[in-house]
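Hello again, I could really use a second opinion on something today. Take your time with it, there's no hurry, and the full record follows here:

___
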Amino acid sequence: MYRLIQTVQQYFDLVFSQENQVCSLFSRLLQEISKRVHIDRINQDIESGYQSGVTVAPALFINRVRYTERWNIEQLKAAINHHYFLGWIF
């Protein structure tokens, strides 16, 4: 019984430790957002998206080619295979 209690205590210690780490990271993120720490990088990413032809989010690219077909597993597999083999040809 003691071993079970000890194991449960270790589990809770781990969970609360991770929870505290997540809370700390989330708090840091909120502070950085409020201070606009990442605004230049965000604007660069937005501009890069516009230049790549992104008009809505999310946008999917396969080997730097925008994928505009339906997002189902079979069509995605076919597109990935197509672009993979094209990469070997060119």
